[in-house]
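Lay summary. Proteins are chains of building blocks that fold into shapes, and those shapes determine what they do. In this project we predict the shape from the chain. Here is one chain we studied, written as its sequence of building blocks.
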Amino acid sequence: MSIDFLLTSLIVVASPGTGVLLTLAAGLSRGARASMVAAFGCTLGIVPHMAAAVMGLAALLHTSAIAFQTLKYLGVAYLLYMAWTTLKEQGALRVDKDMSPRSARQVIVAAILVNILNPKLSIFFLAFLPQFVSAADPHPLGRMLELSLVFMLLTFVVFVGYGLFAAGIRNHVISRPRVLTSMRRTFAGAFAALGARLAFAER
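And here is the predicted shape, written in a compact code that computers can read:
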């Protein structure tokens, strides 16, 4: 396992994106347990992209404009939906005192969808992983799977860190209605901005 791979992966994972945003929102609105659930869901959302890259299916998104655009606009629609529900106090920043089983499932589903509906992740894996697999490696598939699992582990650990930080300041936020309202608007705007960025993304 090269240092270059670990550093590059850490930079990619720690960079603010939809997964980070959702995990922060879960920590702020529902506490530490919810943030860990969100981090787990975001990590699970990587699996289809990882599998697509390992099996070469991500190449389809790179070569087929229709496939890429279809998945992309589904992702855009979902991010805009997240922005709307957050603003209406029904989405990512809905404040719950307890993390019920139903709300846990909702967080996991939302986190998985956020990553699944991002075609850039598949293309990222397609371009990223092969750079760290030697042409002389006798088991390239196993090596790619190993690297992918390390990437997923880093994702989970970093996202849990983000979520626990958000959970730590939760009481300071929810005890101040104006701050909570501002946070809702900020998160809704961020989801909308990420949706707009994805809408203009090219293969």
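What the prediction tells us: Residues 176 and 182 are 10 Å apart (CA to CA).
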